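Hey,

Quick one before I head out. I ran the complex with NAP overnight. Inputs first:
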Amino acid sequence: MKRAIFRRHGDPAEVIEVIHEPDPVPGPGQVRVRLKVMTINPADLLNIEGRYGAEPVRLPATPGVGAYGIVDMVGEGVTRLAPGDAVLPVGGGLWADAVVVHERMAPKAPDGADPEQAAMMRANPATAEIMLTGIVTLSPGDWVVQNAANSAVGRLVIRYAREKGLKTVNIVRRADVVGLLVADGADAVIVDDGGDLTAAINATTGGTAPRLALDAVGGRATAALAAAVADHGTVAVYGLLSGQDSRVGARDVVFRGVNVRGFWLADWYAQATPDQMRDLHAFLTSKLASGDTWQEVEERYPLSRVKEAVAHAARGGRNGKVLLTGDHDA
Ligand SMILES: NC(=O)c1ccc[n+]([C@@H]2O[C@H](COP(=O)([O-])OP(=O)(O)OC[C@H]3O[C@@H](n4cnc5c(N)ncnc54)[C@H](OP(=O)(O)O)[C@@H]3O)[C@@H](O)[C@H]2O)c1
């Protein structure tokens, strides 16, 4: 079988490599899963670069936290799963064409689920929904402003906000995606041309300042959002696409009471109550079934071409996600 590993942090396309090893055999309570689809997200690239999360990664390491696969072998004492079952393994290290995990770490994929959409279900749709419902209490008619709005998360935010009666101002960095976002239900789209973003947001919302801003960019983008939200509004920083630490104006945080905070799905999962987990699972399963977790896919690469895949995923101007496919038959 093949596995992607990195032995040191650095540019993902340079440091990622594929190694070959014998197929793993499941022990008691474990199952072997042949992975068919593996996701590549900005977080995976940050992880390889050594810029993600708080914990140092033990090297060499295998990236990958989202995948869809089929159980092909079960260990002694496994009761819940059988060969042929489609599962969405959890726990990391999933850029491999086979993994062995405890059966508890291999929840079944929803019946009839599209393998690609199911593999992507737990990260971005969950992030969009929780950021809209779990950070501030919003009411129909409230504005939410976000940047990187044509990202997978951003497009889900637009759709889920629209369903809740919220209005969205969406900041992008290229004009060719405006029509796409309007079709998704965006109320306004601003193309960031380096001008005064705060003024552009204010002009769009007609003086009703947003109560929530979602910032995936950091750097000066955070300051622009902090200046645009209402007094005592909230900016949730959830990404660092600019690679720069967030900057905010003292005027906004001190004299207008703007709350700048972070959001990290991994932390949310770690803190969630069983009820919250059940509700989120029910939400994701029903959205997957209705097609409302849909994320565009721009390209698929077999695991053996992981270097090309990560280089593609790191490029701007994509119109969808880049996925890896298991190629244990190749
Ligand atoms: N905190 C969490 O728990 C959590 C969970 C999920 C995702 N995220 C974050 O959410 C963000 C979006 O993830 P995704 O998977 O939805 O992304 P994606 O679909 O892969 O899209 C990437 C987006 O980033 C934009 N972008 C890249 N570099 C940029 C820069 N320097 N300035 C402004 N925009 C830039 C791209 O714009 P172009 O199309 O113009 O290139 C595109 O809109 C990422 O930062 C990711 O790490 C965070």
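The chain has two domains: 2-120+295-325, 124-266.

Talk tomorrow,
K.
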